[in-house]
Structures are given as structure tokens and as C-alpha cells.
Amino acid sequence: MCILIVDDSEMNRLVLHALLEEEGSQEIVLADSAMEASRLLGLETGEPLIDPSLILMDIMMPGVDGIQACKRIKNQPRYKDTPVIVVTALTDSKYLEEAFAAGAHDYILKPIKKIELLARVKATLSLKEELDKRKKREQEILEELTIARKVQQSVLSLPLNTSDLSIDAAYVPSELLSGDMYYWTRLDQDRYGIAILDIVGHGVSASLISMSVRSLLLDLIGRITEPVAVIEQLNSFMWKMFNCNSSLRIQYFTCLYMVVDMHRKVLEYVNAGHPPGLIIQDKAVYQLDRTAVPVGVRPQIDVKKNLYSFQPPTDILLFTDGLVEEPGRSIKEGIKRLSRIFQENREGNPKEITSGILRDYIQENRKIIDDICLISIKIP
Predict the structure, then answer these.
(1) In the record, which residues are listed under signal peptide (predicted)?
(2) Which structural domain, as residue segments, surrounds residue 71?
(3) How many CA atoms lie within 13 A of 148 on its CB side?
């Protein structure tokens, strides 16, 4: 570990150097002024010559004093976690307060006492070492989460464009990983299965559950097309896997699953505790309201299927609650506002519709506070 000693007194520099070297410190760098320290640290050039684990800084120095130097060093992102111990003969608490306000970690009074110096230096270096280990681990976790995010997004359904229907989606997690998920597939020549779900919570646990549910959903929709049966199977899975014998919090998700039948011009859907889907026909907006409680809340779920007849052209919007839940505004108000924005953007294709809605949301809120997922379905 490198220790930088900054003091305009040669005697003080030599004393500190000797005491630290005697204790076993191998790399000790001396600077006779704040300007020399600045040069060594690369504060002006951005090209440091050393990477200290600790800085011992005298307060009273000509030109730039130790407090000013400490402030300049701490203003550099590179050194925000580098501890600075001020070494001073000043006993006035005002100077110590200024030093701590500038970012100093600790202080040592002159004349220097060997035991005190070595104890404070050892404690500070140990703390710095632990901090470095934590930062390294956090970086490793961040890299792992970034990979996990790419994996999660790689399984999302790709845009679908056929002669009678087109689908696209937008997916904006509030953290690296999200509990929101969507899936669609063509069931046969005339029917399409479309699902959107929102796992309770955020982050790693929610994303893992969403991936597990998505895998099951892929298998279920391949075997079962009836919306009620699909939701019942998902509920059985959630209850047995996460809630049946668990003393932890209940894991559940909201879901809207629909089958679009182009031959019959009918939507068959189940809404398990999810925000209502929106449908635009003849400039009027209709809602696909809830028909069941969220999935996983109970061992058995009482599911009701609703039917909605449509005539082209029809636009459908499915979304998670992150798009309509805002501080100071009710969900009802959020849905009403979303309905208006949906109408304003409906002339575009599904990608343009989702982009327009998100653009308006970000302009209004400026910050993503919850996972957001929305699906635009256009039936020309």
C-alpha cells in the first residue's frame, strides 16, 4: 500500500517516514507542498503518478493549505474513498471541523506520538482495504447483474407482423433486473396468445420468478390455449413453488392473458389483478377489467373469462402498473391520462405507439420509479 505524506517541514516528513518505514510500510511518497501533492495525484492532468491508499496531510502550509488541498483531492471521483488524516499542531476545534468538512477521515496532533500514529494509520488502512474489497465485490455483482439483464431481455418475444395483426412492446426496468415480463405467440392460423405479467417487488428475486413463470408459460401455451386453464395452472405453480410451505412473504404476480381470435373477431381474456387493458374502436376507449385475484395469492383461484368482440381497425394496449402509478395521482387518473395518450399515438405502428407513450411518460415524470412494460397490438 502506498502512503503519501504532505508537509512543508522536512523534519516532519522525515519523522513520519521513519516511523512508518520502521513499522513495515514499503511504499512511502513525500511531498513538500500541496502543489507537489497535486502533481503526484494528477489533479490537473488526470494522469496520476501514484495511487495512495492513505494521505497524511499537514494543515499549515504556505500557498494552498492542507484543508484546501484535502477539499480539492476529495472533489476528484478517483479519490473520494481515499482516506486523508490531517497532521497538525493546531488544537482549535475550528480547524478540525473545517478539515472534516473538507473530507478528512481522522487527525493526529503534533508532536507526533508513535503509538497513536501507528494505531490510527493501521486502523485507517484496514478500513480502506475492506472498502476496496467491498467495491470490488459490488463491481463483480454489477457485472453479473448486467449479464443477467441481457439474458432476461433475450427471452422477450420479438415483434410480430402478419397480414392481420402486428405486435411490439417496450420494456423499461427501474433497476438492472425487472419483475415485468411479456410473451406472445401464434397459436394457429387464426389465433394469437398474448400475456403480460408483473411480479410483486423488484430486482433479483422478482426477475428470477418472472423467468421461471415465462418458462412455464411457454410450455403451457404450447399445450393449453384456454385462458382460464392457463391462469389456473400458473396459480398452482406459484402456490406450490413459492407459497405453500413458506414462512416468507407471499409471492404473487398480476397477469392479463388473452387469446385473439381473428376468425371470430373475438378477444378471450382473463385479467388476474392486473391493470385493465385498453382497446380503441371508433375513437372510443374500452377497458379489459379484472376478472380474478392475482396469481399465487391463494391455493385455488376463481377465474372468470371475458369475451370482447371487435371489428378492425382495432388497437389494444396492455401495460404494467408502473406506467399509471405516480406520486400524488390515483391509478384511475393515471389510466385516464394513458387512454388519452394512447389515442393521440394510435395512428402509428406498434413500435411508434409504445415509443410515443414512453416519451410522454418520461417528459412528465423525468424518472423511472417502477418497472414499466407495455404491449401495443394493432389489428388493421
Answers:
(1) none
(2) 2-145
(3) 20
